[in-house]
Amino acid sequence: MLRKIYVIINGEVKYQRQYSKLFTENEFQAIFPFITQDSNSILESEIGAFDFYTHKICYIINKESELVIIFITGLTDDIELIKKELIKLKKEILNTFDEMIKEKTLDSSMIAVINPIIDHAFESLKPKISLVGFSSVGKTTILRLIKAQEIPTEHVPTITGDIATIKIGKLTFNLWDFAGQDHFSFLWNKFIKGSDAVLLITDSTLENVEKSKYFLHLIQEEAPYAHAAVIGNKQDLKNAMRPEEIEELLGLKTYTMIAIDPNNREKMITIIADILDMNTEVSPLLKPLSKRDKLMEKVEKALNNRQFRKVQEIFNALADICLDLGDDSLSQEFYQKSQKLKNALEKIS
Questions:
Q1: Residues 18 and 94 reside in one and the same domain
Q2: Segment (H or E) for 331
């Protein structure tokens, strides 16, 4: 998973774009001496990578233009795929800004025009999230909840596994839901291997939580650098354990869930962003979601205060954001509400 991007020109950071909270400026300052282009630099090749604690530092350089592009990724990311994205980005920057780089007239704000290309690189390196857990704990129901699909009314076992491409805001990722029956256990390690995050699903009963300890060893063996957490599903059951009790037994942060309730989709999306350490205020791909939620709060407040013209303006803004997020139907719904309210206000005046 791509965490942060730096563009360095003449030894100066001209551009940075962050997708998660994990990589701090203090960490960057610690590696900065190694990614300059002086004669003592460890960057002997034009393109390469090295591990730095829980991150992989991937770089490409162009000595003639004194350009260095750095991707901060997870340790399990495919280095060959990363190199392809680095080469593509270097070519785009040089094609667009080569003269300004040579004349040293390139302003940091100008590089922002390549944001869509950089975001495409993130999408190409989309994170892998695995849903693990035994049969009938609600993995597929949670998958359907995230995808906003119809929730099944009866349990139908997943055969071997299901891989879905999910979009939250402008964030795209692969979600792996695989069979929890014991006779498919020989496949579990293959599905979980290389995951950026693992969500261990339980049905919140003591028996299932105890049994789920098996997956802790599997996560440690196959995805030691993955961010792992527990979803305590079926919290509507009388014998459901509290999240604090589940955390004590499994040693992982636990989120509560009732996956059969469609209203919990936003909560599930928040959990995924949290497990990936993606803050809606930090990640450019999730900021539209944060903006949308704030506008929804303003709508409610304006309605309570009977500020209908303000409501109409906010509906317009929500239509634009939903369109930007790719939710055309919701965008159209807000636009129609705005037009109806506008027509009603014109009649009154």
A1: yes
A2: helix 328-348
- Averaged pLDDT, 226-242: 90
Within a domain: 280:
no
Is residue 281 assigned to a domain? no
Q: Bigger pLDDT: 154 or 187?
A: 187
- For residue 251, name the pLDDT band (cuts at 50, 70, 90): very high
Q: Could you tell me if residue 340 is inside a domain?
A: yes
Are 106 and 136 in a shared domain?
no
Range of the domain at 142: 128-275
Residue reference for tokens 């004669």? 39
Q: What are the tens digits of pLDDT across the range 311-327?
A: 899 888 888 887 776 66
**84 and 118 share one domain:** yes
- Nearest-5° Cα angle at 199, 193 to 203: 130
Q: In terms of Cα–Cα distance, which of 23, 14, 35 is closest to 96?
A: 14
Number of domains comprising the chain: 3
**Helix, strand or coil, per DSSP, at residue 8:** strand
Do 215 and 87 belong to one domain? no
Angle formed at CA 317 by CA 315 and CA 318, multiple of 5 degrees: 65
Please give the structure tokens belonging to residue 29: 């300052």
Whether residues 158 and 252 share a domain: the answer is: yes
State the average pLDDT for the chain: 77
CB atoms within 10 A of CB 288: 18
Q: Are residues 186 and 81 in the same domain?
A: no
Bridge partner list, 50: 57
Indicate whether this model's pTM tops 0.85: no
Radius of gyration of the chain (CA): 24
CA atoms within 13 A on the CB side of 131: 33
- Are 134 and 263 in the same domain? yes
What is the reported pLDDT for 172? 65
The more confidently predicted of residues 255 and 38 is: 255
Are 156 and 220 in the same domain?
yes
Tally of residues, the chain:
349
Amino acid at the residue 95: N
CATH number at residue 53: 3.30.450.50
Interval 99-108: pLDDT, tens:
888 888 888 7
Give pLDDT tens digits for 11-42: 788 888 877 766 666 666 666 665 554 434 44
Rounded distance, CA 292 to CA 274, Å?
18
